[in-house]
Amino acid sequence: AQSVTQLGSHVSVSEGALVLLRCNYSSSVPPYLFWYVQYPNQGLQLLLKYTSAATLVKGINGFEAEFKKSETSFHLTKPSAHMSDAAEYFCAVINTGGFKTIFGAGTRLFVKA
Amino acid sequence: GAGVSQSPRYKVAKRGQDVALRCDPISGHVSLFWYQQALGQGPEFLTYFQNEAQLDKSGLPSDRFFAERPEGSVSTLKIQRTQQEDSAVYLCASTLREGRADTQYFGPGTRLTVL
């Protein structure tokens, strides 16, 4: 069965610092991978997705993620954090046998001034 | 432009009551998903529709949960004889096509509280 693990339920960075949110997945075949962001009192919105094209995926708001098959990872990064990045971030994988999307437990990002 | 809408936004039910949650996907979107998000957790898949066909209902936690999308647009998630453990935010998402890589557009959710 596929699964997603997000390391760290809370991450705190200073404004301007590197953001690194970790995601590892388990899958017997290359999956489709996604990062979603949920701002307070808003619905989830897609940041970026990996669909077996380029392994380095660029998303909105300066975020990017790299698919590393050997490490079964899809970590999310942003070179310089902004206060507006404070939100909850979810990594997700699509079940290759169907349409069931499996989400990680989420990582809440805090940005300090 | 209109996104995915859900109603009601908040619902309080007494244990044992039946509830119906509505999802209006983006017009023309083929696929529709329902998720349950407990406090502090990620969304958990409940069911998936392609047009009016329910292709995957493996995530429905019990036979008290039922979903339908009779005309391939609006969907309703019904929970019978609600229990306290049903308290959660119920999310709906839609995609333009049926591809697994398609972007899911999420609604704001319905927060269900069972007393």
Span between N and C termini of chain B? 36 Å
State the share of residues found in helices of chain A, binned by percent.
under 10%
The quaternary structure here is: heterodimer
Strand fraction of chain B equals over 45%
Q: Report on the biggest sheet of chain B.
A: 7 strands, mixed
Sheet-strand content of chain A, in percent, reads over 45%
Mean pLDDT of chain A: 92
The strand count of chain A comes to 11
Q: Distance N terminus to C terminus of chain A?
A: 41 Å
Give the helices and strands of chain A as they follow along the chain: EEEEEEEEEEE
What share of residues of chain B is helical?
A: under 10%
Report the total helices of chain B: 0
Shape label of chain A: globular
Helical stretch tally of chain A? 0
Low-confidence stretches of chain A: none
Number of strands of chain B: 11
Explain this structure to me?
The complex is a heterodimer of chains A (113) and B (115). Chain A is built from no helices and eleven strands. Chain A has 113 residues and is an all-beta fold. In chain A, the strands form two sheets. In chain A, strands 2, 4, 5, 9, 10 and 11 form a six-stranded mixed sheet that branches. In chain A, strand 6 and strand 7 form a beta hairpin. The radius of gyration of chain A is 13 Å and the shape is globular. Chain B has no helices and eleven strands. In chain B, strands 2, 4, 5, 6, 9, 10 and 11 form a seven-stranded mixed sheet that branches. Chain B has a four-stranded antiparallel sheet with strand order 1-3-8-7, with no helix packed on it. Chain B is globular and about 40 Å long. The model of chain B has no long low-confidence stretch (mean pLDDT 95). Chains A and B meet through strand 5, strand 9 and strand 10 of A and strand 4 and strand 5 of B.
